Amino acid sequence: MILSRNLPFRLALAACVLIIAIIVYSHQAFAQTAGDLQQKIDQRNQDIADLEKQIRSYQSQIDSLGSQATSLSSAIKSLDLNRKQLETKIKLTEDQIANKTAQIEQLGGQIDETQGSIDDDRRIVFQTFLVLNETSDKSLIEILLGSDSLATALDSLDRLGVLEQDVYGRIHSLSKDKSDLVLSQQASMAAKADLMALDKQLGDQRSIVLDTVAEKNSLLAETKQSQTAYMKMLASKKAQESALQDEISQYEQQLHLLVNPNQIPPPGHILSWPLDHIRITQYFGNTPFSTANPQLYSGKGHDGIDLAAAIGTPVKAALSGTVIGVENTDLFPGCYSFGKWVMIKHADGLSTLYGHLSLQLVSVGQEVATGQLIGYSGNTGYTTGPHLHFGVYATAGTVIKLFTNSRHCQGAKIPIADWSAYLNPLSYI
Q: Which of 53, 107, 240, 401 has the fewest CB atoms within 10 Å of its CB?
């Protein structure tokens, strides 16, 4: 009779012990799975580091070629190195995608594990409260009389003490588990956003590779692999670019868009760098290169800064604003200017130009945020090698000119400005 009265209590107590045992085993199983996944992520990180090292090696070779005398063979070799570097970047992006996918899987496991821990803690707390409630109205004498033996009674009391301590620990951990769950969910959402961006980047990189291959084939066809023909082609491009600069200079002198200093912000840290890694190859104004080539700069010097950037390097908006120009002067044979370019108008009276891109990712009228990806650097337009031309303008003194009476750029759109509207980018970064 006494045994039957004590049976619910003993069953509840046994249930608590069984639940805890199952939870411990499930946590051990998850830990093993998580460890295997972490090993894969660590190996992928090592592969990524190796690919980044290979990309830097290609860039070093490309830079070395840039310092050599211009020749058809060096131009072809440079295009081949750029293609190989881009293909390596594609492998890098593929590895980053695989790594990000593994991280999402890992975070998913953590979310499931944490949610499971919360559910388990709730069950244990509930079950323990049942046990404690069963004994709350019983005195020590009643527990002793309701047990088979003194040893059983003492064991039950000991288990009750452990369970009581455990339930307080479980209640405390519930709050922490919920906080961890929110953090893991936020990290998972961020990782999924990164994955989408990487998927888009992979498609962009493959498109740029195709353009690079087409550029090489076009160069071979145009020169018929003759160094003499190549040098004539360069001389012709230089003459046509110089003629275009003369046209631009004439238009600029006719603008008379005097810039009121009150319409532009004073120099300061207003703009962000458009690239993640910065190496300036030509500064603003009367640089040695512009002085040595006055015909290319209408005698007023370099109207922006040039930043070293391999073909396919992400280019970002230097400040939030509205895209007011997205054009490609290469669509007009003989129009050697900025190639593929983007111009953004900012709210503070400044506008920024990004020239010689390989791919544009924005459209006219689009609102962009500071740091937003707007395209990839390239070698389009008139260049002596891949780089990003970054210009800063006083908006009030700048127009995007449609060339209607041009010998080589008929129908092209090119930004031009009053000479006072060209600003030194370094004054605002």
A: 53
